[in-house]
Amino acid sequence: MVVRSSSGSTPPNGSTVVLSATNGTLSGSNFTGQSTVALLLTNGRASAVFTPTAAGTALITARLESSVGETTISVGGVSTVVFHIDRVVPNVGDPAGGNHVTIFGQNIVPR
């Protein structure tokens, strides 16, 4: 998706583009799980990862000044799972294995 400024030119570094998504969330290096996010452009680019919440259709919209760009994507299912491991206790074990460990983090499902 390419969004140009209202004058049709490439936007300067530091310009703000607002991305929004339906049927899912946007994530990046300093935000997660947002349906709308404002990003600063660098070399005319900004990026986010879209994670669907259900099968169907999603609308991704980018707004820059009075310009709007949209794209519709088909979502076949929800398969993206993001998890974070904060620490493992103990963090050192026997090289042969066999030690029990506890994993601490987010979105980790015990088995």
As a whole number of angstroms, the C-alpha radius of gyration is 20 Å
User: How many beta-strand segments?
Assistant: 9
Overall geometry comes to elongated
Q: Please give the alpha-carbon distance between the first and last residues.
A: 40 Å
Instruction: Please report the number of helical segments.
Output: 0
The helix-strand sequence is EEEEEEEEE
Topology:
Elements: E1 16-21, E2 24-28, E3 31-34, E4 36-40, E5 49-52, E6 56-64, E7 67-75, E8 84-89, E9 102-106
Antiparallel strand pairs: 1-4, 1-6, 2-3, 2-5, 6-7, 8-9
Structure description:
This protein is mostly beta strands and 111 residues long. The protein has a domain at 16-75. 0% of the residues lie in helices and 48% in strands. A 4-stranded antiparallel beta sheet has the order 4-1-6-7, with no helix packed on it. A hairpin with a 2-residue loop joins β2 and β3 (31-34). It is elongated and about 65 Å long.
Structure at a glance:
The protein is mainly beta.
Tag the structure with descriptive keywords.
111 residues; mainly beta; 4-stranded antiparallel beta sheet; 3-stranded antiparallel beta sheet; elongated
